């Protein structure tokens, strides 16, 4: 063994202590056995043993860290408190994100099931708004308040509830779920099922919801917030099947609306000929009269409806309490075609209304010169005027009316026809 090798062994022993001594001894053994066949196997075995000895016996500061050791979080220093979790906010956020497991966790942790957001919407209302039936069911199982209200952003409604949102969403399963969680006595109380709910369902043509609401106490004759009853709402929105459903549930076809008029009155005024036909075929009264107008009066801006109503029995000179004939109404509105149709069906061109005049007076007042010409061709009396029932004084003639309301062309036309003041 040469001096260089001896120096190397001594250096190992000094540097690694016991580990170095083991390595040096192994090296000497290898040197004596290197000429034998098993030298290679022994070399591998001793080399592995040497490495293990070095790792185990070397000083700690010389070991190499091979992996990080996980650490636990340190406890908060004395005097400090852990951050407070807003359980109600967690519940509302979970509902908005449609996360059923998080909703369960928040409720189990003690969140208020009736927590509300900045707009006043409860967790139940948010779940219903998002059409989340499972979350809504879970909240109801924790006694969520079905009657909680929040201000509506819609102009057609006042306050919203979970039920009104479900009806607006046309979500039949959730509507059924909410109604089932109402107590029987409250479900049958009309005050707890506002007419607005049924009105909204009729406006949408949601027949399944209409059935559910009526079964739970909604009144088929109650007025919606716009003053129309459910049947008139359905007619106005052209939902024929909903009308038939309401009739089967006891609705009256000619029921007066709080806003005035019947369903037929409103669709005639709107000009919906197909719905007029549908209602007449169902038996609606073509001679219905409200406090101020008849159905025929309401239709004068739509000649095809005037013609249809007359064909199906409407009285051409029918008077409402306002004592104005359909002809006078058509003259006032300036619809020449309706004036011609009514005259052709025998309307009295010289009828004196209690409101101060004839159809000619109304045309002169409104400035409809073509209507004046039509009436003159039919030979109406140009000088006819009524007497005020209170003062017993005569009303103005058509000529006086035309001059008073600054229609000189009509005044000249009447003068050429022989009218006198």
Please describe the topology of this protein.
Blueprint (H helix, E strand, L loop, with lengths): L2 H14 L1 H16 L5 H19 L29 H10 L3 H9 L14 H7 L3 H9 L8 E2 L7 E2 L1 H7 L3 H9 L3 H4 L7 H10 L2 H9 L14 H7 L3 H9 L14 H8 L2 H9 L13 H4 L4 H9 L14 H8 L2 H9 L14 H8 L2 H9 L20 H7 L3 H9 L5
Antiparallel strand pairs: 1-2
Helix pairs in contact: 1-2, 2-3, 4-5, 4-6, 6-7, 6-8, 7-9, 8-9, 8-11, 9-12, 11-12, 11-13, 13-14, 13-15, 15-16, 18-20, 19-20, 19-21, 21-22, 21-23, 23-24
Could you explain the architecture of this structure?
With 421 residues, the chain is mostly helical. Among the domains are: 3-57; 86-181, Serine Threonine Protein Phosphatase 5, Tetratricopeptide repeat (Alpha Horseshoe), CATH 1.25.40; 323-421, Serine Threonine Protein Phosphatase 5, Tetratricopeptide repeat (Alpha Horseshoe). Helices cover 52% and strands 1% of the residues. It has 24 helices and 2 strands. Strand 1 (150-151) and strand 2 form a beta hairpin. The longest helix is centred in the first third of the chain and has 19 residues, at 39-57. The chain is elongated, with a radius of gyration of 47 Å.
What descriptors fit this protein?
elongated, mainly alpha, two-stranded antiparallel ribbon, 421 residues, 2 strands
Helix content: 40-55%
Low-confidence stretches: 39-46, 51-57, 60-74, 186-191
Q: Can you count the beta strands?
A: 2
- Output the CATH class name of one domain: Mainly Alpha
Shape: elongated
Count, helices: 24
Structural class: mainly alpha
In sequence order, what are the helices and strands, one letter per element? Answer: HHHHHHHEEHHHHHHHHHHHHHHHHH
Q: Under CATH, the topology of one domain is which?
A: Serine Threonine Protein Phosphatase 5, Tetratricopeptide repeat
Query: What is the alpha-carbon Rg in Å?
Result: 47 Å
What is the rounded distance between the termini? 153 Å
If you average the pLDDT, what whole number results? Answer: 83
Sketch the major β-sheet.
2 strands, antiparallel
What is the name of the CATH superfamily of one domain?
Ankyrin repeat-containing domain
Per CATH, which architecture of one domain? Alpha Horseshoe
- How much strand content do the residues show? under 5%
Biggest sheet strand line-up:
1-2
């Amino acid at each position: 063994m040469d001096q260089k090798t001896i120096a190397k062994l001594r250096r190992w022993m000094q540097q690694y202590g016991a580990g170095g001594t083991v390595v040096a001894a192994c090296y000497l053994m290898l040197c004596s056995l290197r000429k034998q066949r098993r030298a290679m196997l022994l070399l591998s075995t001793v080399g592995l043993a040497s490495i293990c000895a070095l790792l185990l016996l070397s000083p700690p500061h010389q070991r190499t860290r091979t992996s990080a050791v996980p650490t636990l979080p340190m406890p908060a220093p004395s005097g400090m408190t852990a951050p407070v979790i807003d359980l109600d906010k967690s519940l509302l956020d979970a509902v908005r994100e449609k996360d059923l497991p998080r909703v369960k966790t928040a409720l189990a942790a003690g969140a208020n099931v009736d927590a509300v957001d900045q707009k006043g919407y409860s967790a139940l209302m948010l779940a219903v708004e998002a059409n989340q039936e499972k979350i809504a069911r879970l909240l109801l199982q924790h006694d969520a308040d079905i009657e909680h209200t929040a201000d509506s952003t819609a102009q057609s409604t006042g306050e919203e509830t979970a039920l009104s949102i479900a009806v607006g969403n046309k979500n039949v399963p959730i509507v059924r779920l909410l109604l089932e969680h109402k107590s029987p006595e409250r479900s049958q109380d009309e005050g707890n099922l506002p007419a607005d709910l049924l009105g909204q369902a009729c406006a949408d043509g949601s027949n399944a919801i209409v059935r559910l609401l009526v079964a739970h106490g909604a009144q088929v004759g109650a007025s919606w917030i716009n003053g129309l009853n459910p049947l008139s709402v359905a007619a106005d929105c052209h939902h024929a099947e909903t009308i038939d459903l309401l009739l089967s549930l006891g609705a009256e076809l000619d029921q007066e609306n709080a806003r005035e008029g019947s369903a037929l009155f409103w669709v005639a005024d709107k000009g919906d000929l197909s719905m007029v036909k549908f209602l007449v075929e169902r038996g609606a009264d073509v001679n219905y009269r409200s406090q101020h107008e008849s159905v025929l009066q309401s239709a004068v801006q739509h000649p095809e409806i005037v013609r249809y109503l007359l064909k199906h029995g409407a009285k051409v000179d029918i008077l409402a309490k306002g004592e104005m004939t359909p002809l006078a109404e058509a003259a006032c509105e300036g619809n020449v075609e309706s004036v011609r149709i009514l005259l052709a069906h025998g309307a009295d061109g010289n009828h004196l209304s209690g409101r101060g005049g004839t159809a000619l007076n109304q045309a002169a007042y409104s400035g409809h010169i073509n209507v004046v010409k039509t009436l003159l061709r039919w030979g109406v009396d140009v000088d006819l005027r009524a007497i005020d029932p209170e003062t017993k004084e005569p009303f103005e003639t058509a000529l006086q009316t035309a001059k008073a309301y600054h229609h000189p062309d009509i005044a000249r036309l009447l003068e050429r026809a022989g009218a006198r003041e």
